Each structure stands twice: as structure tokens, then as C-alpha cells.
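Justification of computing resources. Each target in the renewal requires a structure prediction run like the one illustrated here; the chain below, 227 residues long, is used simply to show the kind of job we budget for.
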Amino acid sequence: MKRILTPTQSPADWKPLLAKPDLHWKVGASAMAAAACWEAGDGFPSEIQAALSTGPAELQDLDLVLAVPEWEVPLPGGATASHTDVLAVGRNERGLAIIAVEAKVDEPFGPTVGEKRSGASAGQEERLRFLHATLGLTEPLPDPIRYQLIHRLASAVLTARQFHAQTAVMLVQSFSPTSRWFDDFRAFAEVVGASAGPGSVAAVPSVAKPRLFLGWCSGDAKYLSGI
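Resulting C-alpha cells:
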């Protein structure tokens, strides 16, 4: 996969990067809302900066070095990579931090672990084992947990290791006025030993290097009106 990046000029430049542009690029959906939000500012969106500020010193007062739409992280067990909606590299006096942002409105977090296990191919089973190992999990994840959250969290870890960053965060940026699907996120956080609430980040204790956090924040609903 390509690692040659070009700067964007407007939110519309994000559309061709989507896995299914014609399906996912529409007013009121997360792809367009996230593009409009990130392009509108100079640095981290305020809600993301606020959530990061609830974490340790490594996440305080981060300057945005770069943000990459649709960052791809290859995983074993198949040809399909994990697509991080926005990969942000932040920096402060303590070093680099990787923030993997998953944007949501009404879209669910995809199939459950149980659905992925049912009739899984050898490659899918290999990928699940790899994700468990990457996250330092010793027990199988319960069937109701959303599979997308697992590979997005693992992607944050793998990208941080690529950048030699000491800290990684997987952060849901929800543009849903009702924080839809937060219960699924909270169930996943509890299973990996984190107690993250809205507008905050919490440590995931099973991963030592990099220090790993996950969190949830609410994006400004004005970006649901499109670009």
C-alpha cells in the first residue's frame, strides 16, 4: 500500500480515500462530518484536545504534527487492511503520541466478535489471534463485543510502534446527538480493563509499550450539515 501522502485542500479531498466513496460519502454520515470538522480547524478539534487533556502528561498540550485521512494498517490473515478514519500524530515536550480517531454518527461498530468467529476461515482465525496478542489479552473476548473496536485499538498500537511513539490512543469522535453506540464502546472498554467515559480517555493496562489509552468524545453537530 502507498505511503506517499499529499496535503488536502478541502473536505472533498477526503472522499476518494474512502474504501467505498459512493456509499460512505454523504451528508449526515461520519466520513463527511469528520472531514468537515478536521479541515475547519488548525490543529486538533477542541473536543479531542479536551478528551486528551484528561490523560497523563504525555497527552497534555499536544501540537498536531500531521493528520492522515483513512490511514491503512495491514493485518495478517487476509488482504483487507484496517482503515483508521483519521490518524493524528501529536507532539509535546515528552515526545510523540499517536491518536487513531474513529468517527461515528449513526453507523454501528460493525459485526460482533461472535459473528466473526462463526464460520471463520483460517485467515480470520489467524487475525483474531494476532489482535489478541497485540492487545496483550489472555482471555478470548466475549461474543457480543464489536470486532471493529478491537482492530482499531490494535491499529493504534501498531502505528505507534512504527513511529516509535511512547503513547497511543484510540478515540471515538461521535457526531451523534444521542451518543449512539456508546454502550457498545463502554462494554469493550470494560473488557480491556479501561473505564473511559464520555469526553475522557482511560488507560488500557494490558499493553505496556506503547502506553495505550482509549476514549470517547462528542463532535460538533454542525458538521452533520455537510461541506
